[in-house]
Amino acid sequence: MAGYSFSLIPHEVAKLKTDHRLIQTSIPAPGTAEVFERLDKVESRSMHGQLPLVWERAEDSSVYDIAGNRWIDFTSTIFVANVGHSNPRVTSAIKEALDHPLYSCYAYANPVRAKYLERLISFAGAPFEKAFLLSAGTEATEAALKLMRMHGQQTNKRRRGIICIENNWHGRTLGAQMMSSNLGQRAWIGYQDADIHHIPFPYPWQLEGRSGAEFLLQGLEALAAKGIDLSQDVCGFMLETFQGWGAVFYPKDYVQAIETVCRKNGILLAFDEMQAGFGRTGKKFGFQHYDVTPDLICTGKGMGGGVPLSGVIGRAKVMDLPDVGNMSSTHSANPLVCAAGLAVLEELESRNLVAEAERKGKLFREALETIQKRFPDRISWILGNGMIMAVLFQDPETGDADGPFTSRVAERCMQKGVLVVHTGRESIKLGPPLTITDEALIEGIAILAESIAEVAAE
Ligand SMILES: Cc1ncc(COP(=O)(O)O)c(C=O)c1O
After folding, report:
1. Ligand 1: residues within 6 Å at CB?
2. Atom of ligand 1 nearest to the CA of 78
């Protein structure tokens, strides 16, 4: 979030009350600065930079602060609350798990883990046969890296290469950071794994008449020019399902061409579904937008409905590569998170939330495109699918990306009772819980339009 810091000084704003929003104090609300100051004293600043409000509770698609103000939530705590904040089914599953005296049991077998994994595999569908559960998303992408390398080196010791995409992001641990191309974020490592390669991302504004498949070919030719042989040196492709900061999806033929390259050369295809999974994009998993079949998917965030649950899901022959006992983690698959994960799947399926995300996604896109028509010189792109959308802002004079304007719009939305995802760059991301009502969704988008108009007029 570098580059813009939100003021903690209370600002007089218009008081308002609707069925979905309540702003009854100055914003940031009284008491907010004190909590931020306490955190500043005892917590690494690396955790900070978000909008200045102190969450007191969150229910379904509403967030409440310590002063009783209420927001329409377009963040889902960064795409975690797919089934709604504090979902009652998830809450009672957790309570039930706690009432049963077993909420930690390392890798010892327990019934709820078996039940959850069976349900997860059936939810994921073919070709997925086995999963390995973890706690954080970064652990899942890291595990996929390990599995792809183990698979490659089975046939050829040289086969360690992982092809990733520039500007994609996979987490903050060593391997995940190396697969992410952000140089600033991995400077601390001091070296780059020589077998992790990056090829350009096919941004719609960079295709210049090329098809996705042609664009990919150019990327792969650049690797070949460095002496990388796809059939001898490469074991995996790791794709973030869409590029996070701007919900930028790839052209379908780009991903399909990657799949063809993988099949031809015995390379594994993995998707990082952290943000895209569990209905977020209007499909169970985001890779389904490309009509391809991955070997591995890395999941997390919405998977646990708010508890730390992540995983790698894949074909059995890949998932069983590590020897017995060789891929485990202390808190992995504990009874509490499995109970929550199970309730998430039950909620997604019984309420048809994946189809709902697709239906509401159409409303969402239409409403945002109407705003774009109103501000054609400010909004350069509307991107995304289902319940993950991004609005990209530009400077009306130069056409350059306009991060500061974007941050001010995010702040204004907050002052008006709508929480959006502040990315620190020229995008505002919008990812409400899939359970949000049509009315709250439309009201939130109207407030975004109002905020853009006000900030543009200043
Ligand atoms: C695409 C993607 N991959 C990996 C991660 C890392 O997940 P976690 O923060 O749970 O480690 C994130 C988190 O934002 C993500 O968006």
Report:
1. 136-138, 141, 169-171, 240, 244, 272, 274-275, 300
2. 14
